[in-house]
């Protein structure tokens, strides 16, 4: 039997393929050397554990003995988990975009033995169908071409490489001024869906950074339509099937324009980015509806995605028992049996019908006001809400006894860092201590398990950490440290953030293009050293670095951090204005820079009224540090942000902006006059 080497991997995605008849390798020295030694092309397959079409292609092609036999004889076959190796994925996704105009997973690439791509696509059916060539026949044609016309293949590989190098060049730098935000906001608003919220048509993704930018632009311009659009989007999402109505948490995207039918996988990063939007919506409106969605989402992560060691798992699959969505959907008859007399009210509220709203089943969603439902059943709104809550708990209990979707339990520093930020922001608006504990526990987990000397590692599973950290691991983690530091200003958080910030500048910065590389200068060499500039489902490492460096500058007054931050913003501002959809996070950073950050220090938390007012007010360009005791202040006195401040026995607030500071303020009115 041919050997499949994936059995030695830790990634749940790679382990899913460890028993294929294909002789898979991970991406490593052995495999790359074997391709050169045997002069065989490489077949590279990139995917992730909760990817539906990855499972389909695996089942059709990689579990097929005949296809596998041909692959083993003619190619060196390498499997990569895109979540472990975003650098490899980034390079070959760009090739796929160049070749076909679109990317996606599974990503299927044929490479020369020196890793240059010569044929690329995404999902291939096993036999020719849907107007797509079958995987079997592609393998045969390419293998033949490699043997008979290697010069042609080298030529097409060189073409790809030239095109790829062009994608890495960054535009001319632009002066940072308000007109960039004006242009971006208008361009973004034009692609908004006025009926259901969100951007573009189906499939619809939650695009958290763009929603945050709408909120910021509304504050800047005083135009309420931007707030209204963002709030409508968040309301529609929370009432649709993309939000798990009884279990909390968001699916990755909606297959339709109205947020009803999700692609059922749940990713950690969505459930980290989206709650921040709901926290902001609550600060803007004070409507408890948004707070409720935030809490249900964070509680879902605490319940179902937190490891005993304090890290957060990566994802839940869309399928259970081989059927997409099976875990989440209901038949009306089943609900009636569980809920008895309360079923009718519950079913009216959550749009449950005999025929169902998706493939004969019901995805719970809510289109009716509580008042309408209560009126219909002759009960008070409060009573109706109690019935809905208790019914939801009963159904959740029944659901948790079902066969759960597969869990990808690897722990990634970058995604965990986003989750720390979400728990920190959630704590600020709810004062729920569990959220702050979760954030701090995760920081300790990363400190204890994911450092190799001064270097950050990327991924952890089964007690071992591996792969050097990427730009996103460093930049997201610096931000997470600062988010927790603002709540609990222990100097170790700030010191670690500053140390990592310096490490980034020393090992990732590219002064010729004013941006960061995705990988450090001592990372494994690939065909190019990639850059990530677009904020898509995840904010780009460059956008987050720009924000992290801006914050580090404000805490430490180290000029170099400000220079790096502004150079990134200037190099991408024009692209962001023209294509705001791909630069939401960067636009929020430019907003903060242009508005001049407010440095707010609260000394002594005794006056909870003042503290809560500040925490539940939307102050998007503020850094708010809360000093609980004098020893915290003593430990920080060497940093300009805290210099000259002394701890008092009553609550005092300092507001500094643009190099001038207020006197200590003691009342809400005084504080408001400085904001």
- The CATH topology of the largest domain is given as Glycosyltransferase
* Spatial arrangement of strands, main beta sheet: 1-3-2-4-5
Sheet/helix structural class? alpha+beta
Number of domains: 4
Q: Poorly predicted ranges (pLDDT <50, ≥5 residues)?
A: none
The gist of it:
Pfam families: Thioredox_DsbH. This protein is of the alpha+beta class and 675 residues long.
Q: How would you describe the overall organization of this protein?
A:
Residues 4-165 form the Spermatogenesis-associated protein 20-like TRX domain. It holds the Pfam family Thioredox_DsbH. This protein has 675 residues and is α+β, with helices and mostly antiparallel strands. The chain has 4 domains: 5-168, 3-Layer(aba) Sandwich (Glutaredoxin), CATH 3.40.30; 178-327 and 407-595, Glycosyltransferase (Alpha/alpha barrel), CATH 1.50.10.10; 332-400, Arc Repressor Mutant, subunit A, CATH 1.10.10; 598-673. The chain is 51% helix and 12% strand. The chain is built from 26 helices and 22 strands. The strands form 7 sheets. A 5-stranded mixed sheet has the order 1-3-2-4-5, sandwiched between helices. Strands 13, 14, 15 and 16 form a 4-stranded antiparallel sheet that branches. A 4-stranded mixed sheet has the order 20-19-21-22. A hairpin with a 4-residue loop joins strand 17 and strand 18. Helix 12 packs across helix 17 (413-430). The longest helix has 20 residues, at 381-400. The mean pLDDT is 95.
């Amino acid at each position: 039997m041919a050997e499949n080497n994936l059995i030695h991997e830790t990634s749940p995605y790679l382990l899913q393929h460890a028993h294929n008849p294909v002789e898979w390798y991970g991406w490593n020295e052995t495999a790359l050397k074997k391709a050169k030694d045997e002069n065989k092309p490489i077949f590279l397959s990139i995917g992730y554990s909760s990817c539906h079409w990855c499972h389909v292609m695996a089942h059709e092609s990689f579990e097929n003995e005949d296809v596998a036999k041909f692959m083993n004889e003619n190619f060196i076959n390498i499997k990569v988990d895109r979540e472990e190796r975003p650098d490899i994925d980034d390079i070959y996704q760009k090739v796929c975009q160049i070749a076909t105009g679109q990317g996606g997973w599974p990503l299927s690439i044929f490479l020369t033995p020196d890793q240059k791509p010569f044929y690329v696509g995404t999902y291939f059916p096993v036999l020719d169908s849907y107007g797509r060539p079958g995987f079997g026949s592609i393998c045969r044609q390419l293998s033949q071409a490699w043997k008979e016309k290697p010069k042609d293949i080298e030529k097409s590989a060189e073409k790809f490489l030239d095109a790829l190098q062009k994608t890495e060049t960054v535009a001319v730098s632009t002066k940072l001024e308000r007109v960039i935000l004006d242009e971006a906001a208008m361009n973004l608003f034009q692609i908004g869906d006025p009926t259901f919220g969100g951007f573009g048509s189906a499939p619809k993704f939650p695009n958290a950074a763009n929603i945050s930018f709408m909120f910021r632009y509304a504050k800047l311009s005083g135009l309420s339509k931007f707030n209204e659009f963002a709030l409508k989007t968040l309301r529609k999402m929370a009432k649709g099937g993309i939000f798990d109505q009884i279990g909390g948490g968001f699916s990755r995207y909606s297959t339709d324009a109205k947020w009803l039918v999700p692609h059922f996988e749940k990713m950690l990063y969505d459930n980290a980015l989206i709650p921040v939007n709901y926290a902001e919506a609550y600060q803007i409106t004070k409507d408890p509806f948004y707070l409720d969605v935030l809490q249900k989402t964070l509680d879902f992560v605490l319940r179902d995605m937190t490891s005993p060691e304090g890290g957060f798992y990566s994802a839940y699959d869309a399928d259970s028992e081989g059927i997409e969505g099976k875990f989440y959907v209901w038949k009306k008859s089943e609900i009636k049996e569980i809920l008895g007399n309360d079923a009718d009210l519950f079913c009216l509220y959550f749009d449950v019908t005999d025929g169902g709203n998706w493939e004969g089943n019901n995805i719970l969603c809510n289109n009716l006001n509580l008042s309408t439902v209560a009126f219909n059943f002759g009960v008070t709104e409060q009573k109706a809400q109690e019935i809905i809550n208790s019914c939801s708990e009963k159904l959740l209990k029944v659901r948790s006894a079902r066969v759960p979707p597969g869990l990808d339990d690897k722990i990634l520093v970058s995604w965990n860092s986003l989750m720390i930020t979400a728990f920190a922001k959630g704590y600020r608006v709810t004062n729920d201590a569990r959220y702050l504990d979760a954030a701090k526990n995760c920081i300790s987990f990363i400190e204890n398990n994911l450092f190799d000397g001064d270097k950050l590692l990327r991924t952890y599973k089964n007690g071992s950490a591996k792969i050097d950290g990427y730009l996103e691991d460093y930049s997201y983690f610096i931000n997470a440290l600062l988010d927790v530091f603002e709540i609990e200003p222990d100097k170790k958080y700030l010191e670690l953030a500053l140390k990592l910030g310096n490490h980034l500048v020393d090992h990732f910065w590219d002064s010729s293009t004013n941006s960061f590389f995705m990988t450090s200068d001592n990372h494994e060499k690939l065909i190019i050293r990639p850059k990530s500039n677009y904020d898509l489902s995840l904010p780009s490492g460059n956008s987050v670095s720009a924000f992290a460096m801006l914050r580090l500058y404000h805490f430490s007054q180290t000029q170099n951090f400000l220079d790096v931050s502004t150079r990134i913003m200037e190099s991408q501002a024009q692209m962001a204005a023209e294509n705001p959809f791909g630069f939401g996070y960067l636009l929020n950073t430019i907003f903060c820079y242009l508005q001049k950050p407010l440095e707010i220090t609260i000394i002594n938390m005794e006056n909870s009224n003042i503290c809560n007012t500040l925490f539940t007010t939307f102050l998007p360009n503020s850094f708010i540090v809360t000093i609980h005791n004098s020893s915290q202040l003593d430990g920080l006195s060497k940093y300009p942000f805290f210099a000259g401040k002394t701890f008092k026995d009553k609550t005092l607030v300092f507001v500094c902006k643009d190099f001038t500071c207020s006197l200590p303020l003691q009342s809400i009115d005084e504080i408001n006059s400085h904001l």
